[in-house]
Design brief:
alpha+beta, 4 strands, 2 helices, 4-stranded mixed sheet
Length: about 180
């Protein structure tokens, strides 16, 4: 057996092992990072889904309040507006959301506020088909039309926009909207 002097060994094996260890360490770090990101994404999706379910409680409460309105022509308590409200770039009505009602019960961990605006350009309605967003008359309603079709208004035809804001404990907000007829 021939011995190789230590001076002639160059440490090539050691260098290869260090390179392979570095590659394996980087791979393990990338895998850990992907796993962490997937848990965060899953949590965010679950939170968003739960906030949309909480918004449904707001829609139902607002719709019940719209059906109980005494007068569609008058604003009511900071939550109902007889005319279409101006909106921001995201389509959210520009109103004081701190003055809107908060839905109580059934929405743990979330604060649910709602507002309703009638999709009309004026408060007092004279010709509803021209001043409001209305449901179109079906062919069965056509026989009920008066001599002037512009004066015709199907029953429960005016549209209302319900906007619901859901805020979670972290301050994240989810906004939803629905159009309803009274």
């Amino acid at each position: 057996m021939k011995r190789i002097p230590l001076r002639s060994q160059r440490g090539m094996t050691m260098l290869m092992v260090l390179i392979l260890m570095t590659v394996m360490l980087l791979g393990a770090l990338a895998l850990a990072r992907m796993t962490e990101a997937s848990y965060l994404i899953t949590g965010n999706v679950a939170s968003k889904d739960a906030s949309v379910h909480a918004a449904e409680v707001g829609w139902n409460t607002a719709f019940t309040a719209v059906k109980a309105l005494a007068s569609e022509n008058d604003d009511n308590g900071g939550w109902y507006f007889a005319t279409t409200q101006p909106v921001d770039a995201n389509g959210i009505p520009a109103i004081n959301w701190d003055g809107t009602p908060t839905v109580a019960g059934g929405v743990e961990r979330y604060t649910v506020n709602y507002a309703v605006d009638r999709l009309c350009t004026i408060g007092e309605i004279t010709v509803a088909s021209r001043e409001c967003l209305v449901k179109l008359a079906s062919t069965t309603d056509a026989e009920d039309m008066s001599a002037n079709p512009l004066d015709y208004q199907p029953k429960n035809s005016r549209q209302f926009r319900i906007t619901v804001r859901v805020t979670d404990q972290r301050g994240t907000q989810t906004w939803t909207q629905a159009l309803v007829n009274r």
